[in-house]
Amino acid sequence: MKARVALLLALALNACTPSSSGHVSRAIPIADSSLPPVKVFGTGYHAGPVRANNDLALDFIELSFKLESGRELPVFTRFEGPVSVTVIGDQPPSLQHDLTRLLKRLRSEARIDITEVSGPRANITINAVPRKEIRKLLPQAACFVAPNVSTLEEYRKARNTKKTNWAQLRKRERLAIFLPNDVSPQEVRDCLHEELAQSLGPLNDLYRLPDSVFNDDNVHTVLTGFDMLMLRTYYSPKLYNGMSRGQVAATLPHILREINPRGELTAANFATRTPIQWKRAIESALGPASSRGERKAGAAEALRIATAMGWQDQRRAFAHYAMGRVLQRENPAQAQQHYSSAKKFYAATPGTHLHQAYVATQLSAFAISQGAGAQALQLIAPHVETARLNENAALLSTLLLLRAEALDLENRPSEAQAVRMDSLGWARYGFGSDWAVRAKLREIASLNPLKG
């Protein structure tokens, strides 16, 4: 079992110009609603990593020969030959659109021979099931993937046996992905991307990766250029099932030199590993089951470890962000100091534009609550296109709604209303039901001191 765990990172809150990047959107019908049609992303742009091949090789080994628990995997495994995918269960309306796009990207960017089939049996079976069925099996999981099964009933019978033990796997032939079918379209898509990627490739997550879905911070929600490079490496003809860690490590320089030549010209960084204690502290700080005291203690411990390790990268920033989240209600001013620190460390770390957009929602929300509309507009401006390029509708709609409130503060009501209307289609994709979208509208409007 490999699960996507939902940390409480996502938006605590929890005029827009058209994209000039070739990134387009269109609407799809998802349930009756009095709100504007749901918007979905069309073509996108996902730049590859600008990192040394030496660093990429180290990332690949750690992603591929360990589970998140820290347990070592004895051999390399993947699918051999063409890979088939099918969907069973009560499929939500948005899933087919997002699956078609993802499979196309996997074929073109990762060079994997993967296709969707209509039969009940395939190498990878995507099960669309109610969220409560997933939570019965794994209370903290948003979704998960398991080897050697195709259905939920099969998994229930084989759970906790050698059959579904990743460490016992010697080749991949049949896997099942379990996605919730009663959540927002974005949450369904996010699960699809991460679990399909881990069905095909790496089974570990690394907090040191700033530009990957293989990171439990859940900032990236669609496969990035880094992820596609890792998957393309996975399916190089130079690798095969049963290879040892040493054999793969010896082969990687030849693969990466061929598929990522610019990585040969980049200086290695040799990022330090992330201690398990830091990971546990972050889980306490942001985990949905933690008490308030546990969250505060966890965030403080994460900051202590990050400082002691001398980190200046996104992990130090993330610890400050977590502390800001913990302090937000009881001490908003102190929370802002931590968000500002997070912004500083993210700005100094390549590949963290999306992280900076999340921080901007917190800083601009506070500015709006203080009546500082112009400041909020300045904070928001650089990040709207970032959210769009990274296909994060929840973040995009939140930034637009914050922009609308800031425009109201600046006495620009017609612009504010236009931006607010533009946000709603994205909000329906990002947050789902009408009540969730309206709750988000009320939540952000309540920040505005002019509205009491």
In a nutshell, what does this entry contain?
By secondary structure, this protein is α/β, with parallel strands linked by helices. About 50% of the residues lie in helices and about 10% in strands.
The low-pLDDT segments are 6-27
As a whole number of angstroms, the C-alpha radius of gyration is 22 Å
What's the level 1 CATH class of the largest domain?
A: Alpha Beta
Structural class comes to: alpha/beta
The total domain count is 2
How far from one another are the termini?
48 Å
Quick one: CATH superfamily of the largest domain?
Collagenase (Catalytic Domain)
CATH architectural group of the largest domain: 3-Layer(aba) Sandwich
Order of helices and strands: EEEHEHEEHEHEHHHHHHHHHHHHH
The quaternary organization reads as single chain
Please state the overall shape, judged from the principal axes of the Cα atoms: globular
CATH topology type of the largest domain:
Collagenase (Catalytic Domain)
Sheet with most strands? 6 strands, mixed
Strand content: 5-15%
Please report the total strand number as a whole number.
8
Helix content: 40-55%
Mean pLDDT: 91
Q: Counting H and I runs of at least 4 residues, what is the number of helices?
A: 17
Order of strands side by side in the largest beta sheet? 1-7-8-6-4-5
